[in-house]
Amino acid sequence: MDIDIIELSDTKARFVLNDVEPAIANGLRRIILAEVPTMAVDYVNIYDNTSVLFDEQIALRMGLIPLITDLESYVLPEDCDCGGEGCTKCQLSLNLSAEGPKMIYSGDLLSSDPKVTVADEKIPIIELKERQTLVLEAVAKLGIGRKHAKWQAGVGCGYKNMPDITIKEDCDSCGRCVDECPRNILVINNDKLEVTDPLKCNLCKLCMGVCDINAINVREVPNSYIFNMESDGSYPVKELMIQGADTIIQKAGQLKEILSEIE
Fold first, then answer.
1. Largest distance between two CA atoms of the chain
2. pLDDT tens-digit readout, 41-82
3. Parts of the chain belonging to CATH 3.30.1360.10
4. Would you state the CATH architecture of domain 38-151?
5. Which whole-number Å values give the CA distances from 254 to 61, 106, 251, 261, in the listed order?
6. For the domain 2-34+155-229, what is the CATH code?
7. Which of 40, 138, 218, 232 is 20 to 30 A from 86 via CA?
């Protein structure tokens, strides 16, 4: 396996994954979306709410606020010594006490653990008018995206086959393929057809369809993929990918252990 980084930031990554089977690439995508443990609000205790929204609507908004995840300090409730009843090893509280008139943002939530806070402080929760109040306690737990989307740290994760565009010497630079290309990656430069950015190709092959002399060929590079992924802020995107790979290794180890017990 070989990885060529194209773009990397705290929230987004784009890279080329080479020499891997399709099942491995798709497995990594699915693991990142559905199996990486992530911290999110699981339930909300609302003590006072005189706003225009029902308690259930506020609780729903709270659940979808991304939280920075700390896997070194917390475990999944089903793996905790408390049996999932709730303790400092598997859950934490975020408290809010506010009075209008003001806009309430995610940054107004006060976490009981300074290492686990909101990933974005500017997410609007509700606007309180004059004499309206909101007092609540949100309880956050680790979970996985397979159970609920609020535990899905990878908000965008997908891949496409690596394109390979070949232009033959007998190309007459008529320009028909340039007009047909929906991604605008073909240009005529000095009476010669050129590809400006092959990674943008979506493999539609419309250029091949309009070329009467078959001077251009577009194909998929076997076992090579352009991977795009984005984090909601629960993890830096690099850490999210590492956690995804670790989860695959863990599941493979569990399968090996089960198979070894079969006589």
1. 78
2. 999 999 999 999 999 999 999 999 999 999 999 999 999 988
3. 2-34+155-229
4. Beta Complex (2.170)
5. 36, 38, 5, 11
6. 3.30.1360.10
7. 232
